[in-house]
Amino acid sequence: MTRVAAVDCGTNSIRLLIHDTGTGEVSRRNTIVRLGQGVDETGHFAPEAIERTRAALADYVEEMQREHVTRVRMVATSATRDAANREDFFAMTRGLLGQIQPGAVAEVISGEEEAALSFAGATADIDPARGPFCVIDLGGGSTEFVMEDHAVSTQMGCVRITERIMRTDPPTAEETAEACAFIDAKIAEAASTVPFADARTFVGCAGTFTTLSALAQGLESYDPERIHMSEIPFDRLRKVTADLRAKSAAQRRENPVVHPGRADVIGSGSTVVEQFMDAFEREADATSFIISEKDILDGIIAGLTQG
What we know:
Blueprint: E1 3-9, E2 13-20, E3 24-32, H1 39-42, H2 47-66, E4 71-76, H3 78-82, H4 86-97, E5 107-108, H5 111-122, E6 133-138, E7 143-147, E8 150-154, H6 158-164, H7 173-191, E9 201-205, H8 207-216, H9 224-227, E10 230-233, H10 234-246, H11 249-253, H12 266-284, E11 288-292, H13 296-306
Protein name: Guanosine-5'-triphosphate,3'-diphosphate pyrophosphatase
EC number: 3.6.1.40
InterPro entries: ATPase_NBD (IPR043129), GppA/Ppx_hydrolase (IPR050273), Ppx_GppA_N (IPR003695)
């Protein structure tokens, strides 16, 4: 039996999945590091953001060593594609990941590869009879839309929209209206590549979607087993998203299912999801999302174990 690891570093969080080829999942972790702090405005990683990411990755490497991981693949997505000083980030990852596999370093993958990996992971546990699937991976800096033969990455995410548009806490009506117009334009951009009208089931993955599922179900704590493969009707989701946007970040943090590091951006994330629901109702008569805890990490693991 062999143990392999996948690491995904996005705009808002860094995540780890350790997998045993004989027994399956060993560990799955998520740490909010906000690597993309200010990148949309400055074009550079903030030194403190790189340090937060370094500390989290060092902790993950220690766990990989304890679990005898022999192969690792780390991907970096939206924020790293945008940052001028990304070589500082790469040097940091090379030093840490090399302790597990000589020569390993974070890879900047295209939005299209990110989408394909997310699709493979997110749909792994869904009955194929419910297809065609459209997977939406809503991140901090970008959002990927992917169907079987179509994929697109858009520069739209909860951190980017919070920093660029929805700056007030809670956001004003004017900021929300501006954000909705921005989001609608990005959805229209995606629709020119991805045929939403052909989708039968819409699958949401990543932290905004999973948190919304927990809230819609009224969970008292974040429970991945109850969130994974939950099907949440749009009408119930709209009540949750409106409530979140009306609250301040401090009020959101009071709910135990909302990660403290996500509380300041989930209002923007909720607005994105609301616009998705409007579009998918209009284009495909959709009425619900299936929420998947599996995503790009699971797609990476599949590649490692099949290679």
